[in-house]
Automatic annotation (TrEMBL):
Its EC number is 3.6.3.19. Residues 4-236 form the ABC transporter domain. The gene is malK_2. SUPFAM superfamilies: MOP-like, P-loop containing nucleoside triphosphate hydrolases. It comes from Pseudooceanicola marinus. CDD domains: ABC_MalK_N (cd03301). The keyword Cytoplasm does not apply. It is an enzyme of class 3 (hydrolase). Gene3D superfamilies: 2.40.50.100, Nucleic acid-binding proteins, P-loop containing nucleotide triphosphate hydrolases. One of its GO terms (molecular function) is ATP binding. This is Maltose/maltodextrin import ATP-binding protein MalK. GO terms for cellular component: ATP-binding cassette (ABC) transporter complex, substrate-binding subunit-containing; maltose transport complex. Belongs to the ABC transporter superfamily. InterPro entries: AAA+_ATPase, ABC_transporter-like_ATP-bd, ABC_transporter-like_CS, ABC_transpr_MalK-like, ABC_transpr_MalK/UgpC-like, Mo/tungstate-bd_C_term_dom, NA-bd_OB-fold, OB_MalK-like.
Amino acid sequence: MGNLTLTDVSKTYGGAVNVLNDINLEIEAGELIVFVGPSGCGKSTLLRMIAGLEKITGGTLEIDGQRMNDVPPAQRGIAMVFQSYALYPHMTVRENMAFALKLAKKSKEEIDAAVMDAAKKLQLEDYLDRLPKALSGGQRQRVAIGRSIVRDPKIFLFDEPLSNLDAALRVATRIEIARLKEEMPDRTMVYVTHDQVEAMTLADRIVVLANKGIAQVGAPLELYENPRNEMVATFIGSPAMNLLPGKITATGAETEVTLDAGGIARSTVETTEADMGKTVNIGVRPEHLLPTEVGEALFTGQVDITEALGEVTLLYFETVGTDPALIAKLPDMHKHLRGKTVKMTAAPEHVHLFHEGLSMRHR
Ligand SMILES: Nc1ncnc2c1ncn2[C@@H]1O[C@H](COP(=O)(O)OP(=O)(O)OP(=O)(O)O)[C@@H](O)[C@H]1O
């Protein structure tokens, strides 16, 4: 087990600073849920309330149907892994991992078995007698995770566990976490991150937090393909989805939008006559913008900057006058377009429509 139910959960710090309201969320045992959202939106606060490190000021938190609001952290069946791994420097890896079990007065056999099992899961068997200072950052974070595994919690909470690691270690440790999840399929994991790739690759479902509440919950690709509003559309995906203002000038199975900058967009989002003339933003992901020589264009712009990333090149169209600049992500052969004026288009199935911030969905 390890079901988490949040009902109308809210948080106000010091009776004055309201940071979260009406959080309703059902997390099933065995799910890996990732919280994302702009800085300061309350991701850590929500995680810390689940852990019991922060008081819940409104609503209820249940674990497996039991109200947890006033249950101390140690009795919630939860383990938390932090960004700073905080290992005991004078203890070996084995001692660090065994510490909580020793405090709990478990038998030596039980402790040894739990430590060996965690070390195997995290590929730390060869490092058990080393001190933390003789480990890489990634290995230290694995020891910190190991320390939580030995306690056999129902629920793991991760607060940006990889953010102190360099790029290569981040990838390696992310893959470790994905593997760990496979090995412990019945354990619930709740994970806070700023990293798009971590969110997209690890999550069963992503929870996007914004404006003190939940902006959208869904499987990573569901959020990517059908964002409910402009906030989610521009938050999920990197670089962010491009937005261009315009007005609906033809409705039906294919909607036509005449853009303020003069271009024409066609979208397979279906509209009705009642939508005629509505002010909308069209949204197109950078990877769906394509250069074209003939036909209608969404916009024509000069490529101010190109960033060649190896497999792809990013083109920045700063002269189109939008803020932020429009960005296209094209295969690498397009780096020669720097300084050129290019007509850009997108297939209708990749053109999203947002009316007053909310998405008009592909049907
Ligand atoms: N102890 C506190 N007292 C008052 N306000 C607080 C306290 N802790 C956090 N806050 C405020 O609550 C809001 C949410 O903070 P929180 O750390 O949960 O956000 P976050 O989404 O995790 O941010 P980040 O992505 O930057 O880590 C912020 O505006 C923060 O300033």
